[in-house]
Write a structure and sequence with these properties.
Helix content is about 25%, strand content about 35%. The strands form two sheets. It has a five-stranded antiparallel β-sheet with strand order 1-3-4-5-2. It starts with a strand and ends with a helix. The relative contact order is 0.22.
Amino acid sequence: MVSSITEIEIRYAETDLMGVVHHSHYPVYFEQGRTSYFQEHLKPYQEFEAEGLLAPVLSYQVSLKGRLTYGDVLRLKTYPKSFKGLRIVMGYQGFKDEELVVEGESVHALMGPGLVVLHPRNLPDGYRFLKERLQALL
């Protein structure tokens, strides 16, 4: 499995009254990790979108294991967990120093422009590229 590491410095505005990162920010961090992963190992999202391939989020799962506070640096490991048909599952593990503080995943549907369901006989070229590359990286 090939992964990427994204370092994210925690901003004061991302913390709650208890001084810890509010849980609603983790999907944003996951998106930042996915963006880095695609740029590093595949190609930028914008290129897939220009080819008519979109990947909206169907669901997020977040499991908090520790705490992050203002000024901490989250080292987010992002990796593909599975690619089946028109679904991609991406995995995330976040660390503060060596401590695991968050784990999660996001599930994405591959769709065409206007969020039209793709037909197996009419898949954009970006789909074939994505499938081949992700399966090689899993």
